[in-house]
Design goal:
The complex is a heterotrimer of chains A (about 220), B (about 775) and C (about 220). Chain A is about 80% helix and about 0% strand. Chain A has about 220 residues and is mainly α. In chain A, α1 crosses α2, α3 crosses α4 and α7 runs parallel beside α8. The radius of gyration of chain A is 26 Å and the shape is extended. Chain B has two domains: about 375 residues, no CATH class; about 200 residues, 3-Layer(aba) Sandwich (Rossmann fold). In chain B, about 40% of the residues lie in helices and about 5% in strands. In chain B, α5 packs across α18 and α24 runs parallel beside α26. Chain B is elongated, with a radius of gyration of 57 Å. Classes of the chains: A mainly alpha (about 220), B mainly alpha (about 775), C mainly alpha (about 220).
Chain lengths: ~220, ~775, ~220
């Protein structure tokens, strides 16, 4: 029986099992790393380095996609040109930063001038969008769960922020909000976390046993 | 006038067309027209109910010759003495009996009258003949053909060809006049004198005919079929056959039945008008015809099923000369609805042969009149047992099915009926234009049976009509632009603008004016002061590890939330170490230290009071790697200098050597990963999380489980700590705007949700099928 | 008022313009918003690439290969080879060469996830779910603690049951058992409450971001007035 990707599968299973074993037997009694621990640490070192290469792969793919867009003169090619220019400029500034203080300054400012304002502004838009969406919620989904959802959110909001000129409403701020946030919401969150953990366990074991092979590609 | 629907392709055509303009099939079948209704029957039309007895009122003595009968208008069946045609037959009448409608009145007439009509009476012998209810189609069909007069003449001419009619029963020929009228034969058959019996023999492989042809003379009576003998005896007077209404009622073959014509030979494949040449005829020659006759027989049986439309009387039909033995027969043989045979008849009623032969004219061959009784004896003996000698035995009543089995009668009857049908039909269009005797067009070479009467009116229930109307509304609505949709889009945008304006004003006015509209908070913090207590109790000289794992989008909230706590540490002079698993983390850390109120004022310098370890790649794997050996995982700082050998982190070997582990994050998953990977390696080092409010629900279980020692969440907790520390910071700056903005948002949500719920409920109630 | 044109001013102007361009989305999608977003994506990608190079690849791969010990060189070589194979993923023709690198990452990630889920979530959270019923040191708050403990336990169990999607095949189709259905319905209520709290948290965070941005705009404009 021929199994496709035997080499990759073997790598995944071997590495995974070694890292997992290091969880259990990676440390000695005095807290220092055992042999398995050092093996685990080495594998993690390689994984961290590979993660850096993965970031480059992602950025390279982004570059190729937009370059193809420009090459084929597709719709939005002008925007792609702007993106590529910004990317290349920032990358060059970053690569030159240790050697050029001005480049380093500009490179560092690129974060404060471009990334942070844009991301923060996008988050600010979310406040208005969420308000509008919650107004229309009951128009589309008028059922018990939607009502519970909306009432809970309103109670938490009213209990979190003080009322202008009135301040906190003790019933809401000290009783309702803590109760709702710490008892039923926590119970539900715990159930969700347990479910996520169980799912992670199942998926991870399937990968470690070779049942799932997401690395085979097409 | 409504469009005619083609029977082949089903598409509508103008009524004036005879052929379909789409597929070329014939729309108007070429069939005999009724005297009463000359217009063709249209598709979907209810058949006209007619009483077959209407067509029985034919008075042979009054109507004259065939020609006069043909010149009559066919629109008055009651006065018309022509035989009923299939097209005029009432649908369903007597159909259960298997009797064509046009012949349905025969029995009635017979029963009503209680006695045979005069012409038939003349044909018969002294022996009473009980009127037999017509149960066989052949009998009915043949009954139409003539009366006893011409049959009697046939018998005179032929002599030998006298198959005796069944005892007690009327032969097909005898039954014919009853269908014609009370009085007798139709006019057209009146001229068919006197050799009626010969007519009956024409299409049949009659041994008597063969015998005559062979001998060239009449066949002895004892060798003739009984019915023919009977005809001879009973045919006292040649009663005039009532004229048939319209020339089309005279079958072509009948018009060609002249003694001298002999077209029957042509029909049989022999020479026309060659009496002597027919001497060599054998039954085998007639056997091919037997099949045709039988087929015509079958057609006649299902005459009722035909929506036969007879052509107007104006159609002229040529007729050929009568054969010798039929020369004296009055050409007023009643028409039949059977399959038109290859015999046509002159529209003017001229006997066949007078106007010359046509291609498909049928004439009795000369040999038919010269049949020697001895020659037909052996053939006649075959049927001798089936036939009665007229006069010797009392005629018995044969059951209808036996009568139907009589080949000679049925064949002759069909042959006589079919030509009558054919005589009235001349193809007017198409490739067969001008030809007579063309099979009616239609799907499958003409309708073999009367199509069932389907009502074109669609029976639609109320519910179906509602659905149809609803579907129609849906379909038409698809093409129409919806004004409602456009209106809704515009209103949605306006609402969004209004909401944005209100929120911006609610948030901006207190901020711009610097007005404090919200009083100090009196709430409890999320962890009930645990984080604050912990931080307050941390040693001042032990480094604290701070992880900056939040996005720049929420830097405003996290900076405002973390500032009171970090500021407290800075006031104590605690060395700090920063790390991040995000590429922007180190920049955020630097920004926090340099721009955040309560923090920047302490002017911590990188490399001296704090160390920025930089970006840790790999996510959870990097966390685990860092947790196991932080010195190996992050050996240098962002500046490239060794991190653990000098400076604030000198002497640190592991995570447990830090005074505290503070995680700043806006993502619950990131917090969970740090808890899972680093938590077991912290030992006694407390883990404190300063998080965004959006991550609080999913992080709180870890605080409840004891894995987190402190939890600070959002602007509210920061405000509490600023108040307790009596050091206003960003939380204090944002507090009024936060208060007003949140209240306005809550009011908008409450009012808008109630309004949306009501309108949505009303919309769903109005349109149950649509989603609001 | 004199305003000196400095780098800070230029930076401020650029930040201000970009903030307005993003907030212009309130009016509707427009080219200014798109330009701002594309600039942001480009700068973010370039920034991440530069940081990755200086803080991951250079100290972990390049420097050890050049200057490291034997062990460090071996590890760096392995990382370099796997990384080079991973870069083959950029081309469709050579993408299969990157499968071993992906397999390595997947194997490590799966093991880390499994270990963390078991040691960091499953055991502690299950223990926490049970320990809420620990009333040994409840004192005067016995009833309250018991009530809250039972409520939390019910909420945790019913939430877990809701995510159980196993069903028996019946003539009317696959259906869950009645007990599972009832418990799942109760769990839905707890989940709705949790999501409501989540929504309130997201809204609060977004509201804070809006306040911060408006404060920035106001602060910037105040420099000129």
């Amino acid at each position: 029986m021929k199994i496709k990707g035997v080499f990759s599968t073997a790598i995944a299973i071997a590495v995974g099992l070694l890292v997992l074993v290091g969880y259990l037997f990676g440390y000695k009694a005095d807290g220092s790393l055992s042999l398995l621990g050092k093996l685990q640490s080495s594998l993690l070192y390689i994984a961290v380095a590979l993660a850096g290469f993965a970031v480059l792969v992602g950025i390279g793919n982004l570059l190729l996609v937009h370059m193809n867009k420009i090459r084929h003169k597709q719709k939005g090619a002008a925007y792609s040109f702007i993106l590529i220019v910004a990317l290349v400029t920032t990358l060059l500034l970053g690569l030159l930063a240790p050697y050029q203080p001005k480049a380093a300054s500009i490179f560092n400012d690129s974060f404060n001038v471009v990334q942070l304002p844009v991301e923060a502004s996008l988050m600010a838009l979310l406040a208005i969008t969420l308000t509008y969406a919650s107004i229309r919620l009951l128009r589309r989904h008028l059922n018990l769960l939607s009502v519970i959802f909306l009432i809970t959110a309103l109670l938490i909001l009213l209990g979190t922020a003080p009322w202008p000129f009135l301040g906190d409403v003790p019933f809401l701020s000290n009783i309702i909000r803590p109760f709702v946030a710490q008892i039923p919401a926590t119970a539900g969150a715990r159930g969700i976390l347990l479910g996520v953990a169980l799912g992670t366990l199942t998926t991870g074991l399937r990968i470690l046993f070779g049942a799932d092979r997401p690395y085979r590609g097409k | 006038m409504a469009d005619l629907r083609c029977q082949m392709c089903g598409k509508p055509n103008p009524p004036e067309l005879e052929e379909c303009q789409f597929c070329g099939a014939r729309i108007k079948p070429v069939l005999a027209s009724t005297p009463a209704d000359s217009r063709p029957i249209e598709a979907g039309e209810e058949p006209i109910s007619k009483d077959a007895s209407e067509f029985e009122k034919v008075k042979p003595a009054e109507e004259g010759s065939i020609s006069s009968a043909e010149n009559e208008s066919p629109a008055e069946p009651s006065s018309d003495e022509s035989l009923p045609l299939p097209s005029a037959a009432t649908p369903g009448s007597d159909s259960s009996k298997g009797v064509p409608d046009e012949l349905s009145g025969l029995g009635e007439a017979a029963s009503e009258d209680g006695e045979a009509p005069d012409w038939l009476a003349g044909l018969r012998s002294d022996k009473p003949v009980e009127p037999e209810p017509v149960s066989s189609v052949e009998e009915e069909a043949t009954a139409e053909l003539g009366d006893e007069d011409w049959i009697a003449r046939l018998g005179d001419e032929m002599k030998a060809v006298t198959p005796e009619p069944p005892a007690g029963g009327r032969s097909a020929v005898e039954a014919l006049p009853e269908s014609a009228s009370e009085g007798g034969l139709p006019d057209r058959l009146q001229s068919l004198q006197p050799s009626e019996s010969g007519v009956q023999e024409l299409p049949a492989a009659s041994p008597a005919i063969s015998a005559e042809r062979e001998t060239g003379g009449p066949v002895p009576a004892e060798n003739l079929p009984d019915w023919l003998n009977q005809l001879e005896e009973t045919a006292a007077e040649p009663e005039p056959i009532p004229p048939v209404g319209g020339a089309e009622s005279v079958p072509d073959w009948l018009s060609n039945l002249r003694p001298e014509s002999g077209t029957l030979a042509a029909l049989f494949g022999g020479e026309p008008q060659a009496e002597s040449s027919s001497s060599g005829e054998t039954p085998d020659q007639l056997s091919p015809l037997q099949a045709d006759v039988n087929a015509a027989e079958a057609v006649e049986k299902h005459k009722d099923d035909f929506g036969v439309v007879s052509e107007p009387a104006a159609q002229t039909q040529e007729t050929g000369p009568l054969p010798e033995w039929l020369a004296g027969i009055d050409r007023t043989a009643p028409p039949s609805g059977g399959t038109p045979a290859l015999i046509d008849i002159d529209d003017e009623g001229n006997p066949p042969g007078e106007k010359g032969e046509t291609a498909f004219s049928l004439e009795a061959p000369d040999w038919l009149f010269k049949l020697d009784p001895e020659q037909g004896a052996e053939k006649g003996t075959e049927k001798e047992e089936d036939q009665l000698v007229p006069g010797d035995l009392e005629s018995a009543e044969l059951p209808s099915w036996v009568q139907a089995m009589r080949p000679l009668e049925s064949v002759v009857a069909e042959a006589m009926t079919a030509p009558q049908e054919d005589a009235r039909v001349t193809e007017q269009s198409g490739p067969l234009a001008g030809l007579r005797g063309v099979l009616p067009s239609g799907p499958g070479l003409g309708p073999l049976r009367k199509p069932p009467a389907y009502s074109v009116k669609l029976r639609v229930s109320d519910g179906q009509q509602r659905y149809a109307a609803y579907l129609d509304r849906l379909v038409t609505g698809e093409t129409k632009p919806r004004a409602v949709g456009t209106k809704r889009l515009t209103s949605n945008r306006l609402w969004r603008w209004l909401i944005a304006l209100l929120l911006i004003l609610a948030v901006g006015v207190p901020l711009f004016r610097g007005v404090q509209v919200a009083p100090e908070t009196s709430s409890l913090s999320s962890d009930k002061g645990a984080a604050f207590t912990l931080i307050s109790g941390l040693p001042a000289d032990t480094p604290v590890l701070i992880v900056f794992d939040y996005d720049p989008a929420l830097s405003g909230e996290l900076e405002a939330t973390a500032a009171p706590f970090i500021g407290k540490l800075l006031r104590k002079g605690t060395p700090l170490a920063f790390i991040s698993t995000s590429p922007t983390g180190p920049a955020l850390a630097e920004r926090f230290m340099q721009t955040t109120p309560l923090v920047s004022s302490h002017q911590y310098r990188r490399g001296e009071q704090y160390v920025n370890l930089g970006y840790l790649a790999g996510g959870p794997a990097g966390m685990l790697y860092f947790a196991g050996d932080p010195t190996a995982a992050m050996p240098t700082t962002v500046d490239g200098k060794p991190a653990w050998e000098t400076g604030p982190l000198q002497g640190i070997q592991g995570l447990s050597n830090f005074a505290a582990f503070i995680l700043l994050t806006d993502n619950a998953d990131t917090g969970r990963n740090w808890i899972e990977q680093v938590g077991p390696r912290l030992g006694n080092t407390p883990m404190i999380m300063i998080i965004s409010t959006q991550a609080e629900p999913l992080v709180r279980p870890y605080f409840d489980s004891g894995q987190l020692k402190g939890l600070v969440s959002g602007l509210a907790d920061a405000k509490i700590y600023e108040q307790s520390d009596n050091r206003p910071g960003l939380a204090h700056l944002y507090w009024s705007s936060f208060s007003v903005g949140t209240l306005v948002a809550v009011l908008l949500i409450v009012i808008g949700a109630i309004w949306s719920a009501v309108t949505g409920w009303r919309a769903r109630r109005r349109n149950p099928g649509e989603e609001a | 008022m004199t305003v000196t044109i400095s780098a800070d001013l230029i930076a401020g102007i650029v930040s201000f313009l970009l903030t307005l361009m993003i907030l212009s989305y309130l009016i509707g999608d427009n080219p200014a918003f798109r330009v701002a977003v594309y600039i942001f994506v480009g700068v973010s990608a370039g920034y991440a690439a530069a940081v990755t190079w200086w803080q991951v690849l250079l100290p972990r791969v390049v420097n050890p290969l050049l200057n490291g010990s034997f062990t460090e060189r071996v590890l760096a070589l392995v990382a370099f080879i796997l990384g080079a194979l991973l870069l083959m993923k950029l081309s469709p023709r050579t993408t299969r060469l990157g499968n071993p690198s992906i397999a390595f990452l997947v194997g490590v990630g799966a093991a880390v996830a499994v270990g963390g889920a078991v040691m960091g979530t499953l055991f502690p959270q299950i223990w926490a779910s049970i320990s809420v019923l620990d009333i040994s040191n409840a004192g005067q708050y016995l009833g309250e603690r018991l009530f809250f403990g039972v409520l939390m336990l019910i909420g945790t169990v019913t939430t877990l049951v809701y995510f159980h999607f196993g069903a028996k095949s019946t003539p009317g189709g696959p259906r869950r058992g009645k007990l599972v259905t009832v418990l799942g319905w109760i769990g839905q209520i707890f989940i709705a409450i949790t999501l409501g709290v989540l929504f309130a948290g997201v809204f609060t965070a977004a509201m804070t971001a809006l306040i911060e941005r408006l404060n920035f705009i106001w602060t910037f404009l105040a420099k000129f007035f």
